[in-house]
Amino acid sequence: MAQQAYMTETDSGGSGPERRETRIRRLFDRAVTGWRGDPRIWRRGLVTAVVAVVLAVVMAGHSRIPNAIGNLGSLTETFLPWFGLLVPVLLVIALARKSATALIALLLPISVWFNLFGGLLFDKTGTGGDLTVATHNVNADNADPAGTARAVAAAGADVMALEELKASAVPTYEKALAAKYPHHAVVGTVGLWSKYPLSGVQAVDIELGWKRAMRATVATPSGPVAVYVAHLPSVRVKLEAGFTARQRDKSAEALGEAIADEKLPRKILLGDLNGTMNDRALTAITSQMRSPQGAVGDGFGFSWPASFPMARIDQILVSGVEPTTSWTLPATGSDHLPIAARVRVDTTAS
Predict the structure, then answer these.
(1) Residue 271 and residue 135 in contact, taking contact as beta carbons nearer than 8 Å
(2) How far apart are CA 274 and CA 243, in angstroms?
(3) What angle do CA 325, 225, 204 make, to 5 degrees?
(4) Which of 59, 113, 192, 347 could disulfide-link 84, Cβ–Cβ 3.0 to 4.6 Å?
């Protein structure tokens, strides 16, 4: 009798893990039963499946979306990584509809997105390097230029570029950075601060009519580097005109030509290009330089807007030097986030 009582008590109460396992198995069996033997799982969710296929086609063929109407192609490419957010939405719909067709169709956009951006999900940062560079659009209306300058300098950059400099604020930036950067030059609304001597400072004509780009030779301990600083024209999204970027595109072409004509083999571009690496409008530049963020960064490195970064329109691009790491800096008084990278100028070093 004692043994029978013991068995009865055990069966009625049960252990915690065993009861949880039984409950989970029951829920799983109930979910599977709802799908098993239901021929409609292939007929339901056809609209969701079509949307998934269209999403995959748009992401895979973004370069073929024409710019003739409102620069739709460039607009798509600017926010292309965010298209992936539609996948979990479609997944929930497919599961709710119990549609096997939609679930299979979802494999297409998932595969395309991971092919385009999967590499950015992993930390590829390395070590080493002999030159740290940083760039920041400080915002002409920045209420704390001195604090912004100190915050960017705290990243330990050897060479730092600032864009959207208001003439009245330049002395403030110069004073705040004088101790760390004995060499600097300002051309129009862009400036370059360096721990190493500068030479060959000159404006770069990006066909704007005013100065928003410059070039200088930085005499680093590992050899001379041509450093370009640029702030390409802003783009606008308007209901009546779409993604208006004609002036930006024209300036990008001019900047690309200037960099292509550079005599020094080592080149670094710092600045606010008002476009992402996916944007075809920047091909004149991106076809001859690469992004440290894409090569050795951690994540997407979005830089704008600072309150909720959605795109990386601030860029560090290099040619003839080897990037080792790239990162985004904390917010300042600007509507952009500063970004930084470390590179190896002496590529012969192990």
Answers:
(1) yes
(2) 12
(3) 110
(4) 113
